[in-house]
Amino acid sequence: METMLRNAFQHLGKSRTANRMARKYGLKFGAGRFVAGETIEHAIRTVRRLNGEGLMATLDHLGEFVGTEAEAAQSADMCIRTLEAIAESGVDSNLSLKLTSLGLDLNEETCLRNMRAILETARKHGNFVRIDMEDFSHCQQTLDLYRRLREEFDNVGVVIQAYLYRSEQDIADLAAYRANMRLVKGAYKESPRVAYPEKKQVDDNYRKIIRQQLNNGNYAAIATHDESVVEEIKGYIWDRGIPHDKFEFQMLYGIAEDLQRRLVGEGYRVRVYVPYGIDWFGYFMRRLAERPANVWFVLKNLFR
């Protein structure tokens, strides 16, 4: 049953029709638990509250269905406006984004042009931009563009997904770029030809690539809500004397909030991934697919 639910949510998350319906009805069905509103103002207010609790943030203006260069330019403008709002408000946040929202599926040069404008703005304000990883079909393109950008900018990072067989080699190949990486398990439905099909295999590889990145001496953003992973990595860091400024823990807005605050209390750097915007539906569906138990929360909101 859980697998059926997960597959259904992943399918819905890719539906343009479902996304349009979600825009019409807004954040009424429980998505507000995971999405910090539809405007920059809502997002900044959320980040300011998180900062007050000792948490850093990364803002993501949600947008996954870009079909024209004009739409890609509009998405890039929203990223730039987000960076300007962060600078103006003084909150502690950087920016996360998806290359498909900047025109990657149209042509690489459009995407690259938009990314350069965003990174120039971030550099002007002393800020940092994280390129989110998407499904396997975009993986190589994403890493190729990251390499090109890394030759020009030192304020850009990328994401590696543990469920892909290729990830260990990708980390090794990117070590020469001193890549600042967010390490995640992965949230897309992939073929067993390219991804580990069993949860234990993904979990084991996740622990392996975290250690690999830490051993490389490059910055590791360890994105997990799995307390067993957190405790194991804390022990690994302690045993090897890895400085706290070489890594951080990252978690999603609305999830594992007690763990976030406990880690802050223990002196660890913790960053919360805070999405916002009107194109929230695909992101919301992936959160439900990751943990179908969240459906109960949604159903309660439906009947309020």
TrEMBL record:
Pathway: Amino-acid degradation; L-proline degradation into L-glutamate; L-glutamate from L-proline: step 1/2. Its cofactor is FAD. GO terms for molecular function: nucleotide binding; proline dehydrogenase activity. It catalyses: L-proline + a quinone = (S)-1-pyrroline-5-carboxylate + a quinol + H(+). Residues 43-298 form the Proline dehydrogenase domain. Transmembrane segments: none annotated. GO terms for biological process: L-proline catabolic process to L-glutamate. It is an enzyme of class 1 (oxidoreductase). Keywords: FAD, Flavoprotein, Nucleotide-binding, Oxidoreductase, Proline metabolism. Its EC number is 1.5.5.2. It holds the Pfam family Pro_dh. Substrate binds at K98, R286, R287. It comes from the Bacteria. FAD binds at M133, Q161, K185, G186, A187, K199, T224, H225. Binds 1 FAD per subunit. Gene3D superfamilies: 3.20.20.220. The keyword Flavoprotein applies. This is proline dehydrogenase.
